[in-house]
Amino acid sequence: MKHVLFIATGGTLACRQSENGLIPALTGEDLLTFLPELSTLCTITIENLFSIDSTDVTTAHRVQMAELIFREYANYDGFIISHGTDTLSHTAALLYHMLRGIDKPVLLTGAQKPIGVPDSDAERNLLDTFRVIAAGYRGVAAVVHGRIIRGNHLVKVDCEDMDPFRSINAPVEGTIAPDGTVHLCPQTPVSRPFELIPVKDTRIFVLRLIPGLDPAVFSMLSGYQHVIIEGYGSGGIPVYLETGLKALIEQGTNVYITTECLSGSVDLTKYAVGCRAAALGAVSLGSHTIADTVASILCGTLTDEP
User: Fold this and answer.
1) C-alpha to C-alpha distance for 285 and 146, rounded to whole angstroms
2) What is d(CA 124, CA 303) in angstroms, rounded to the nearest whole number?
3) Rounded to an integer, what distance in angstroms lies between the CA atom of residue 108 and that of residue 228?
4) What distances in angstroms separate CA 113 from CA 120, 131, 256, one per listed residue?
5) In the predicted model, what is the mean pLDDT of residues 255-269?
6) pLDDT tens per residue, range 231-252
7) Is the pTM here over 0.85, yes or no?
8) Measured distance CA(281)–CA(167) in Å, rounded
9) Could you list the active site residues?
């Protein structure tokens, strides 16, 4: 039987109603009382790391999760993190890049409704994470609504739907049937030693292009080491913004271009607006999501294989 470290961090699944709206209130021990089936799946140790809305989860909180897993790596067969859904993709992506070469499961999950309320998705999502560990999955992934999504491809696409997550630009890693049966896709053997990658630079800004954007915005970004521009379609910079872009790059800021489209890849060789941006020094992000790009910049792994 697998020995699992369950790390509770708050989020909607741990919420209860207050006079000011939903607020995380349940501990890891409280959450697991809703899942009597666990006694036949795993032995569990609980770590109540913190209890906050995932909107308040910072890079420092995510580093704390990664360091805890790295420190306890030899003591457990797998790790589960209960987390709010709003920033789940950012945590999953950073853990994916920080925990390089990991050969054990690190699974994150959350819910759109608190555990124990009618029609909640929390019980199934949480129970499925333990089922996936018992089935032998390896790596950093989210287990949400019957799917296993690798940490660097997870995106939340709906704030109300009960199935809000998608795997962007990559197939899912596996599925969990309603009866609890886990179907895992073949996994590539780990080829590098396990290590904890430190966070290098948190001065990152994401700028979304809109028609008529004031070129003066580039002068306000000079204090950032990295600027990610979320552009249109295949990527590119409007002609009237090129002077500002050039000045920003020349003063030492790394500029990357992604797309506002939910899926697909940036291709700066397709149109003249992209070719000119690349000639000025902007870097195409290809098929990386925003969360994955931020995480890989933080870890200095942007040029690594996905």
Assistant:
1) 29
2) 36
3) 26
4) 5, 21, 36
5) 94
6) 999 999 999 999 999 999 999 9
7) yes
8) 30
9) 12
